[in-house]
């Protein structure tokens, strides 16, 4: 008999009581074995169950079957850590320790990730009192000792216009032994504020969770709500959502290619792409008036329709912008000094990528076929697949080239959708949420897999709302990419991942 | 070199003629709301109920909308049965004083320039240090975009610099999280006096979607003295640029 775990699918709700509750040992075994067997830890979180017990819930994503597996266990203030046998759990276990004061015994590097007080009164994984001030990044860091070994500390405030984070490099001369990344500066309490919802703010939390991924996170949220309610979303709405999601990807990928060019001092592409990124944002504004897609996607469908003339205009403009992007990006591949700087820089091995459970372009650049649109499709993607863009070398070059391939495929997809937009309404009515259900909603944002898990209470309100931004998986990948690199290559490596701070910090 | 020149010719010239010419904004752009308080009978309050951030208030002294708290979602416009609130295409929204952001009013969009002394010091070359203090990266992105060839901020003598020591002021985004408050204050202190503070976006002005959270401080107000408020979630880059140029006396009187 196989392990006890509930089979579920993307955006298909399950009864809370149907989730098998197993012993802590069995839970550990199930997660470790499933991951060893090719599943990925899409989410692992704690939710309180009475004042002194905590339920740990794991969502295992198994691509080969397009299925998700859910299993739960109950703990009080500690449990045997999974990380040693399943490195993908590393960050999740730190998060649970911080949020609920539950200690994963034997965790190799147990530190806070966001620097806030525990949500469970009387429990703190580091025995801090509730009144003690918690200062961001005031904690232990990796130490490397020896002659000429030194630490370089950067942030939270960086040189450019970028979000805050703290980076600690352990260096020997120019060479980086290890990079430790300490975040939490953007922590705004999103998950906590979702409890008891949906409220009039819920949609705004989702659209501003990671502002450059407004459509991505909002799509995941809406899928969750609609699935819980059994709402039938009109096909036209699905198509328009997908168009917006792909434009979001185009804007960010184009911006990233420009920024990568800038980081190696190749200004033509940097300048052109900076502007072309804005052209894509203006397409999103054409859809809904806002450059980031705010107010476009809502539970039940979309708020703004596209008439035939607007669809034609959008098609025309997207074609024109794409031609310009092609001109600007082609320069990169034809310039040996650029390619030379991209190749073999910030390499992540395929094995490391699998061990850490990386997602999105960073994983695809290592040759892994990871893409929600293909593995766990929902909405219009269930009907129309976008071919996965794969790299091989796992370096900056591969992460850049995968983005370029994705730009081409997203443009083709959008063109196809706009040419045959389904007719009919753009929004269905929505109602109350049913009690005691759980749904896992996945969407492929431009950075990778966005995972939302919504749990309702007896009254049909959110008893728990878990958000896993792709950055949550991938920050560790950036740290690994920096090993044995020149510290001066950090900006380039960083941009090749371009992870979210606020999406991680929530 | 040749291929770069060919590409440059194909891609053409990209800088917009603002402020010499009016900017082109999207058809569905939601700019400054127009509050027609006389239309509001003051009973139903549906606008106030649907507003996610309590930007709309209906009280004994009538209907008011606080642009500083507004997310420009348009829910109030949709909900109001008598069209007392309507989103216009007006992009001139920056204000020098917090109270000027409350509509109906007379203060928005006409932000005064700095006083003569500050204008003499900063009017021709303004260096800003940007600090993101819990911003979602949309305000940051649409501030950053001003440095691209489209807006070409440099032609106005405005520049973002890497160190507060080289800056004349700071431009803050985000609701000021508890975890960023010390870094924000330190950055401000590191800027040599006299210095200015610009709050960009609903978060930096009043907390935005995060107003009232214990993890944030509801914006810069009360932490640093603010010289310019630029509303929006996020403000369109033109709104930001218009505000900056008004502050320097490059637009308006
Ligand atoms: S005001 Fe809006 S866009 Fe700006 S940082 Fe806050 S949530 Fe993001």
Describe the model.
The complex is a heterodimer of chains A (506) and B (253). With 506 residues, chain A is α+β, with helices and mostly antiparallel strands. Chain A has 16 helices and 16 strands. Chain A has helices spanning 24-36, 90-100, 190-194, 202-208, 214-229, 235-263, 267-288, 308-333, 336-342, 350-356, 360-364, 372-375, 396-419, 470-481, 490-497, 502-505; strands at residues 6-8, 14-15, 21-22, 40-48, 54-62, 67-75, 78-80, 103-105, 149-154, 166-172, 175-182, 297-298, 301-302, 437-445, 448-456, 462-468. In chain A, the strands form five sheets. In chain A, strands 1, 3, 4, 5 and 6 form a five-stranded mixed beta sheet that branches. In chain A, strand 5 and strand 6 (67-75) form a beta hairpin. The longest helix of chain A has 29 residues, at 235-263. The radius of gyration of chain A is 22 Å and the shape is globular. In chain A, 58% of the residues are buried. With 253 residues, chain B is of the alpha/beta class. Helix content of chain B is 24%, strand content 16%. Chain B is built from eight helices and ten strands. Chain B has helices at 2-11, 46-50, 75-79, 116-122, 138-144, 181-190, 201-206, 237-247; strands at 33-35, 56-59, 62-66, 85-87, 102-103, 126-132, 158-160, 169-173, 196-200, 228-230. In chain B, strands 7-6-8-9-10 form a five-stranded parallel beta sheet, sandwiched between helices. In chain B, helix 7 links the parallel strand 9 and strand 10 (228-230). The radius of gyration of chain B is 19 Å and the shape is globular. The mean pLDDT of chain B is 91. The chains are: A alpha+beta (506), B alpha/beta (253). The interface between A and B is large, with 60 and 67 residues. Iron/sulfur cluster binds at residues 135-136, 138-139, 173-174, 201-203, 208-209, 233-234 of chain B.
């Amino acid at each position: 008999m196989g392990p006890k775990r509930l089979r579920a699918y993307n955006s298909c709700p399950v009864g809370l009581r149907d989730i098998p509750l197993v012993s802590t040992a069995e839970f550990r075994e199930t997660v470790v074995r499933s991951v060893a067997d090719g599943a990925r830890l899409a989410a692992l979180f704690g939710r309180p169950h009475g004042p002194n017990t905590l339920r740990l819930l794991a969502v295992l994503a198994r691509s080969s079957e397009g299925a998700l597996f859910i299993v739960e266990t109950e703990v009080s203030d500690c449990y045997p850590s999974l990380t040693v046998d399943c490195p993908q759990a590393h960050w999740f276990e730190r998060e649970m320790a911080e949020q609920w004061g539950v200690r994963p015994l034997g965790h190799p590097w147990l530190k806070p990730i966001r620097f806030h007080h525990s949500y469970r009164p009387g429990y703190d994984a580091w025995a801090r009192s509730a009144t003690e001030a918690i200062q961001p990044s005031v904690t232990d860091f990796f130490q490397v000792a020896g002659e000429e070994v030194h630490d370089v500390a950067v942030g939270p405030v960086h040189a450019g216009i970028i979000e805050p984070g703290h980076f600690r490099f352990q260096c020997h001369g120019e060479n980086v032994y290890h990079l430790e990344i300490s975040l939490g500066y953007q922590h705004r309490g999103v998950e906590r504020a979702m409890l008891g919802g949906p409220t009039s703010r819920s949609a705004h939390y989702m659209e501003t969770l990671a502002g450059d991924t407004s459509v991505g996170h909002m799509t995941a949220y809406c899928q969750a709500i609609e699935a819980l309610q059994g709402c039938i979303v009109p096909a036209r709405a699905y198509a328009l959502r997908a168009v917006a999601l792909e434009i979001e990807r185009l804007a960010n990928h184009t911006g990233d290619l420009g920024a990568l060019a800038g980081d190696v001092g190749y200004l033509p592409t940097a300048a052109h792409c900076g502007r072309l990124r804005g052209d894509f944002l203006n397409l999103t504004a054409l859809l809904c008036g806002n450059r980031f897609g705010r107010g476009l996607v809502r539970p039940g469908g979309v708020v703004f329709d596209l008439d035939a003339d607007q669809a034609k205009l959008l098609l025309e403009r997207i074609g024109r912008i794409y031609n310009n992007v092609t001109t600007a990006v082609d320069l990169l591949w034809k310039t040996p000094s650029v390619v030379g700087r991209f190749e073999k820089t910030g390499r992540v091995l395929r094995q490391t990528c699998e061990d850490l459970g990386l997602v999105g372009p960073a994983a695809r650049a290592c040759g892994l076929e990871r893409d929600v649109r293909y593995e766990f499709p929902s909405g219009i993607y269930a009907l129309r697949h976008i071919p996965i863009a794969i790299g091989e070398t796992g370096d900056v070059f591969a992460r850049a080239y995968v983005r370029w391939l994705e730009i081409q495929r997203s443009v083709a997809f959008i063109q196809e959708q706009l040419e045959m937009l389904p007719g009919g309404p753009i929004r269905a009515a929505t109602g109350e949420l049913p009690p005691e259900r759980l749904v896992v909603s996945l969407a492929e944002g431009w950075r990778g897999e966005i995972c939302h898990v919504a749990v309702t209470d007896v009254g049909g309100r959110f008893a728990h709302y878990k958000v896993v931004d792709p950055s949550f998986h991938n920050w560790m990948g950036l740290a690994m990419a920096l090993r044995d690199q020149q510290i001066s290559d950090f900006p380039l490596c960083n941009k090749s991942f371009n992870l979210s701070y606020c999406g991680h910090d929530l | 070199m040749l291929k770069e020149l060919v590409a440059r010719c194909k891609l053409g010239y990209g800088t917009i003629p603002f402020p010499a010419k009016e900017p082109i904004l999207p058809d569905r752009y939601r700019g400054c709301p127009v509050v027609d308080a006389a239309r509001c009978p003051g009973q139903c309050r549906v606008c106030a109920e649907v507003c996610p951030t309590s930007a709309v208030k209906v009280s004994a002294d009538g209907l008011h909308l606080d642009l500083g708290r507004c997310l420009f979602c348009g829910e109030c416009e949709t909900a109001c049965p008598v069209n007392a609130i309507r989103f216009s295409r007006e992009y001139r929204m920056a204000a020098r004083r917090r109270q000027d952001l409350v509509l109906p009013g007379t203060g928005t969009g006409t932000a005064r320039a700095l006083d003569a002394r500050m204008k003499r010091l900063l009017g021709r070359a303004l260096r800003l240090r940007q600090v993101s203090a819990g911003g979602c990266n949309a305000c940051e992105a649409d501030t950053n975009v001003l440095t691209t060839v489209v807006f070409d901020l440099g032609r106005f003598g405005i520049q973002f610099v890497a160190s507060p020591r080289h800056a004349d002021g700071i431009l803050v985004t985000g609701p000021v999280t508890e975890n960023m408050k010390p870094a924000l204050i330190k950055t401000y202190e590191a800027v040599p006096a006299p210095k200015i503070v610009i709050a960009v976006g609903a978060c930096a002005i009043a907390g935005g979607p995060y107003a009232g959270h214990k993890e944030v401080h509801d914006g810069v107000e009360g932490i640093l003295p603010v010289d310019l408020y630029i509303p929006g979630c996020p403000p369109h880059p033109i709104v930001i640029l218009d505000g900056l140029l008004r502050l320097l006396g490059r637009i308006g009187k």
